Amino acid sequence: MKRQHDPLRLDVAAFTGDGAQLAGRWPGASLPRLAESQNPPQDVALAEVDWAVQGERRAVTGGEAELWLALQVQAPVWLTCQRCLQPYALPLVLDRRLRFVRGEAQAEALDAETEDDVLALSRSMDLRELVEDELLLALPIVPRHSVCPQPLPMAVEADPLPEGEAERPNPFAALQWLKRVKPDGER
Ligand SMILES: [Zn+2]
């Protein structure tokens, strides 16, 4: 069953300026990109996504106030273990502080020089997309159980040579070449 979900538009400047807060819960299927990157067991529904945002306006002496958004998200996601190839649930828990500044240029410059995530302030922002972006960024590159629940199939356990290994020059071949060029070499 597909349902259309309206974007949750947030006026970031007003929201952060007021120190407003908002929280909610979305069905897992309402975040399509996150849903696509999941692989739940058969007949298991995607878990719901719990979220909360809190705006903050930090006064700066002699300057423009800083606008911040604290974002907390909890979402168990179903991934495929890359070792045993079975689905497993990973509880994603995010606690992010995002700073908003005027203009892409300033956002990029600040983002590069500070630890904080800096975004350009836009008139309105789709909160659902922001939450989904942050969740996608938090997914492990190589998902796997810390301990696989089942014995590994042989093919996986065999741990084949990484790709490109065969292309490395044979060290003995290189040695032969050295000997030919410098027959009196010490090595
Ligand atoms: Zn596993």
Strand order, largest beta sheet: 2-3-4-5-6
- Count helical runs: 6
What's the gyration radius in Å?
25 Å
Query: In terms of per-residue confidence, which ranges show pLDDT below 50 for 5 or more consecutive residues?
Result: none
* DSSP strand content: 25-35%
Alpha-beta classification: alpha+beta
Specify the biggest β-sheet: 5 strands, mixed
H/E topology pattern: EHEHEEEHEEHHH
Termini gap: 71 Å
What's the domain count? 1
Structural account:
This protein has 187 residues and is an alpha+beta fold. The chain has one domain. 26% of the residues lie in helices and 29% in strands. The protein is built from six helices and seven strands; from the N terminus they run E-H-E-H-E-E-E-H-E-E-H-H-H. Strands 2-3-4-5-6 form a five-stranded mixed beta sheet. A two-stranded antiparallel sheet has the order 1-7. Strand 5, helix 3 and strand 6 form a beta-alpha-beta unit. It is elongated, with a radius of gyration of 25 Å. The model has no long low-confidence stretch (mean pLDDT 83). The chain binds zinc ion (ZN). Zinc ion binds next to loops.
